[in-house]
Specification:
This protein folds into two domains: about 70 residues, Phosphorylase Kinase, domain 1, CATH 3.30.200; about 130 residues, Aminoglycoside phosphotransferase (APH), C-terminal lobe (Aminoglycoside 3'-phosphotransferase, Chain: A, domain 2), CATH 3.90.1200. By secondary structure, it is α+β, with helices and mostly antiparallel strands. Helix 5 packs across helix 7. About 35% of the residues lie in helices and about 20% in strands. One of its GO terms (molecular function) is kinase activity.
Length: about 230
């Protein structure tokens, strides 16, 4: 996932939802999807037709997860688009948080800990995140994983606490190390090296080097480049 280098055309249905509010393309992903901000108050994620089913899956997961964790409220949906309310705060890779990487790191760990502790595995209707092989090693602890726990998918409030998580299209049940391994790898991509200890301290766990190595290798094989 990257920020657009230049302004992008705004689809008509996004402009209609925005009304007289400012519309800005804020994120691009590897599938050609674009997320538009409506004056920072709401967001509309738009996917190409061939990937539109992924937004249906994401909406299903958000509708379920919101009972247990802070995720965006769905306002409306349509073919190839998903319209949500904004969470309070800014992405953990907002320039202000990039300048405060230890604070952002703790918020990322806090968000995953809250999700893992609150969402009930036995009630989760979704399978394993798509990038995790069926023959993964026995879990340290099964949890409802975010599935794409990279730094941009945590929102940090003005109080420097996690205010919620976004991009839940791969949410599912897996070993908590699937999330923890990728989240800590993502710290290097976004803030540079040296912040893993901060993350594990906030999550209140000691690193499991074997599981970290396994899930990072699977992410790189199955999910490709950093999102």
């Amino acid at each position: 996932m990257t920020r657009p280098a230049e302004p992008l055309a705004v689809p008509k249905h996004v402009a209609d939802l925005a009304g007289d509010r400012e519309v800005t393309a804020v994120w691009l992903n590897d599938l050609g999807g674009v997320t538009f901000s409506l004056a920072g108050e709401e967001f509309v994620k738009v996917y190409p037709e061939q990937h539109a089913a992924l937004l249906v899956a994401e909406a299903e997961r958000m509708t379920w997860a919101i009972e247990y964790h802070s995720v965006p409220k769905i306002l409306s949906t349509g073919p190839g688009w998903l319209h949500t309310a904004a969470l309070p705060g800014r992405s953990a890779v907002d320039p202000d948080w990039i300048r405060r990487p230890r604070t952002a790191t703790r918020a990322i760990a806090q968000g995953l800990r809250l999700l893992h502790n609150a969402a009930p595995v036995e009630a989760c209707p979704f399978g394993t995140p798509s990038w995790i092989p069926a023959d993964a090693p026995p879990a340290d602890r099964l949890v409802v994983c975010h599935g794409d726990p990279c730094a941009p998918n945590t929102v940090v409030g003005e109080d420097a606490q996690c205010s919620g998580n976004v991009d839940l299209g791969d949410l599912g049940v897996a070993d908590r190390w699937a999330d923890l391994a990728v989240a800590t790898m993502s710290l290097d991509w976004n803030y540079g090296p040296g912040f893993e200890a901060e993350f594990f301290d906030e999550y209140e766990i000691d690193p499991d080097d074997e599981r970290i190595a396994y899930y990072r290798a699977r992410w790189e094989e199955q999910a490709g480049l950093p999102r």
